[in-house]
């Protein structure tokens, strides 16, 4: 069976498992079993993650790293199960499983009428974050992939829950919608740890140079909107902990990006099993590929196709200044 066919089968399996499990605890038990299986057959990827963890947390031992990776796979799989768990629910159904931290920062920014830029790193369950906010009545616009490389059923599973509770936008849309959204006092859910592209900003994160988007800084400079780092950590029995932290804005775009990255790294160091270490692996690999080919592709898919195995080697860490000088 082709990979695309297997993907559809897998999503249908999760949909059936969630339906049969009924309760949040039942869903989580099945998800944990699946995550153990996924982790056990992903040895090559685990080796890369493990080497990054050695570098980021030099004082921690092998047993600790194994625990982080086990937690990482649980989070990774539960995010898929949450798609189906939340599908037919309203906020009243899950309210007792949702906790909030720093909600006053969210509400203060919304009430200002200037719009709010939610910077959401690859941590915990980013999709459930904007879904829960939508359930609570917050007007959230989300930038998402079309998942055109996935089978139609799998892509629709990923998009339908957001379409139900939020307004979805795609990377190929004219970015002017973002300014209009903020000027209307709405919320933009933005992946702050995404690929920056040719107009991105070079910074260091987790000890490696990465290219992050400059769009958040541009939106803040132009609109004066609120800027808050948001995360949704998983808690037991399909629970969610939403956390909102103000980001220190700066007139210099590099300082702005650095402040966001530092806040993200602090969050990841506090809850390392909730961070999406795959994102660090990808950003690090992309930097090595960019330096090797001598240009910054617009399309991230092209950059992925140009990568070679050595680009992902965690020990190949280029100096930030050297990377910046290549394109200055």
Could you outline the blueprint of secondary structure elements for this entry?
Blueprint: H1 3-21, H2 24-40, H3 43-56, H4 62-85, H5 91-94, E1 98-101, H6 103-111, E2 116-119, H7 126-135, E3 140-143, H8 152-165, E4 167-169, H9 176-183, E5 187-190, E6 201-205, E7 208-212, H10 215-223, E8 226-235, E9 239-246, H11 253-270, H12 277-293, H13 300-306, H14 320-326
Parallel strand pairs: 1-9, 2-5, 2-8, 3-4, 3-5
Antiparallel strand pairs: 6-7, 8-9
How would you describe the overall organization of this protein?
With 328 residues, the chain is α/β, with parallel strands linked by helices. 54% of the residues lie in helices and 14% in strands. It is built from 14 helices and nine strands. The protein has a seven-stranded mixed sheet with strand order 1-9-8-2-5-3-4, sandwiched between helices. The chain has a two-stranded antiparallel ribbon with strand order 6-7. Helix 1 crosses helix 4. The longest helix is centred in the first third of the chain and has 24 residues, at 62-85. It is globular. It starts with a helix and ends with a helix. 40% of the residues are buried.
The arrangement of helices and strands along the chain is: HHHHHEHEHEHEHEEEHEEHHHH
What fraction of the residues are assigned to beta strands by DSSP? 5-15%
Helix content: 40-55%
The termini sit apart by: 48 Å
- The radius of gyration over CA amounts to 19 Å
Strand arrangement in the largest pleated sheet: 1-9-8-2-5-3-4
Name the poorly predicted regions. Answer: none
Q: What's the total number of strands?
A: 9
| Shape summary | globular
If helices are DSSP runs of H or I spanning 4 or more residues, what is the number of helices?
A: 14
Sheet of most strands: 7 strands, mixed
Structural class: alpha/beta
- The mean pLDDT is 95
């Amino acid at each position: 069976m082709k990979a695309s066919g297997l993907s559809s089968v897998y999503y249908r399996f999760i949909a059936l498992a969630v339906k049969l499990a009924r309760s949040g605890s039942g869903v989580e038990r099945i998800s944990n079993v699946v995550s153990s299986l996924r982790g056990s057959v992903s040895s090559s990827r685990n080796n890369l993650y493990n080497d990054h963890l050695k570098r980021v947390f030099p004082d921690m031992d092998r047993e600790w790293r194994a625990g982080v990776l086990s937690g990482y796979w649980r989070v990774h799989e539960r995010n898929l199960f949450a798609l189906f768990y939340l599908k037919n629910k309203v906020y009243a159904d899950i309210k007792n499983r949702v906790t909030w931290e720093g909600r006053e920062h969210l509400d203060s920014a919304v009430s200002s009428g200037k719009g709010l830029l939610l910077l959401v790193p690859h941590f915990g369950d980013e999709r459930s974050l904007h879904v829960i906010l939508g359930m609570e009545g917050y007007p959230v616009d989300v930038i998402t992939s079309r998942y055109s490389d996935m089978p139609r059923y799998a892509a629709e599973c990923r998009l339908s829950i957001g379409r139900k509770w939020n307004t979805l936008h795609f990377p190929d849309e004219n970015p002017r919608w973002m300014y209009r959204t903020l000027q209307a006092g709405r919320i933009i859910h933005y992946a702050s740890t995404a690929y920056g592209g040719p107009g991105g900003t070079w910074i260091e994160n987790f000890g490696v140079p990465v290219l992050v988007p400059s769009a958040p800084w541009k939106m803040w400079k132009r609109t004066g909107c609120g800027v808050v780092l948001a995360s949704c950590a998983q808690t037991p029995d399909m629970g969610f902990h939403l956390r909102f932290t103000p980001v220190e804005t700066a007139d210099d775009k590099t300082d702005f990006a650095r402040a966001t990255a530092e806040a993200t790294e602090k969050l990841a160091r506090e809850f390392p099993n909730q961070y999406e270490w795959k994102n660090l692996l990808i950003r690090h690999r992309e930097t090595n590929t960019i330096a090797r080919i001598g240009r910054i592709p617009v399309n991230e898919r092209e950059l992925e196709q140009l990568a070679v195995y050595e680009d992902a080697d965690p020990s190949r860490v280029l100096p930030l200044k050297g990377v910046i000088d290549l394109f200055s």
